[in-house]
Request: fold
Amino acid sequence: MSLLRYMLRNLLHRKFLSLLTILSVTATVGFILLLSMSKAGVEEGAENGYGPFDLVIGAAGSETQLVLNTFYHVGAPTGNIAGEAWEAVSKHQGIDQAFPMTTGDYFNEFPIVGIDAGYFMTRYGDRALSDGILYRQTGEVVVGAHVAETLGLHVGDTFTGAHGLVGDLHHEEEHEGEEGHAGEEQDAHEQFRYTITGILPKLSTPDDRAVFTTVDYAWAVHGEEGGHREITAVLVKPKSLLSGQELRDALEDKAGIQVVYTSKEVADVVNLVDRGSELIEIVTLLCVMLAAVTILLSLVAAAGERTKDAGMLRLLGKSKGYIMASMLGEGLALTATGLLLGYLAGHITAYFLQEAVFNYAGIQIDPFQVTGDHAAIAVGALVTGLAASLLPAFRMYRMDALTLFKA
Reply:
């Protein structure tokens, strides 16, 4: 009997145990692969999240909060700064491009961001919109691809915004008192209607989850006078690192203002995520150990069932190596099958979860991405399967033919 037929017969003889082992490997590989794609999505999103804007200027407070709110549209802004800060930045000789930004209002759960339309050319080049044109005057907006898809929006649709998230608005209304300043603010928002002039293409950045309009939208909604106009942040693309440092030195003594290196804060956040992922790595290791134990138990059970068969084969002239190779081959066959199914399960799961993950955490998972982690997972899985197969295979190898037959 050929070695391959012998292995296949044994695997089919214990269908349930073989299936259980394969499913254990499949679940482990799929889980690890999904984590790998999520981590790659976090790192790629962090890298691409701020584009060419190496500096951001905003109200004094948490530097991380300023960066996350400005570029990733996460959390609340640190506050507002006077419009004069933008004037000082725009006059600096070391600036290549700079854009003032106003935020604070939302359409459903998506932030409304006021920024000059030139931001898109600086950030993304001359990519064409999916539909329509960029905004040109107050009240016109373009929406991110994810916003348009989620809410079913089209060019020509109109809507009203709200100050803060819906939950924040309700909280304000409960605590503002009888006059209800929040109620007046809500009325102002309801009277100001936005018209969609364009839909952005899919950018695979946090901008997919935002609504963009002119920088003066906040002043128009809240009725701010020209002398009291404030902005939330200024995105700065300096001509060089040196000019960026010069700008920072020039502004750092101004009260209530901070100038932040974007890349540093993003790196700090990614490092924090990496430290938090250590717990996930422990869970992953436990999954790998469980899969290895499952393979081991499966082959130990198989060895116990086939002792007499192995003894008969030895008496008929098959070598020790034949018996040992069959055990190792079965372990590798189970592992390889689980590995392939795990790859399939991981990518299919990523495909169906990508929208939910992006909605919840803003992490863009590419379900079709193939990285070096795929090879590392394959090597790790096969080595684990081989290691788990060695014990029962070596036990069968050591026993002589007569002992096997009498067992």
